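Notes from hallway chat w/ T.B., transcribed later so I don't forget. T.B. wanted the structure written out for a chain they're using in a teaching module, and asked if we could keep both sequence and structure tokens in one place. Agreed to drop them here.
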Amino acid sequence: MHRYMISFTYTAPQGIGFMSVEWPCKRHIRSMADIIKITNDLRSNGYIEAVVLSFSLFADPAPASKAAS
């Protein structure tokens, strides 16, 4: 699993909102099609007119979850 920092804008009640979130991905972001999917996911989660501004891959992979023993 790869982790990205995604920065985006969206329409907020008082104007424009800016936000950055940690975004887990099963594969690397490689094309505009991947950005469109992320944008659509943001919009479906309530971020009106979301536009991805930038993304950056974290240096280390996400920690693996440990099964309870």
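Follow-up for T.B.: The longest strand covers residues 2-12. Might be a good example for the class.
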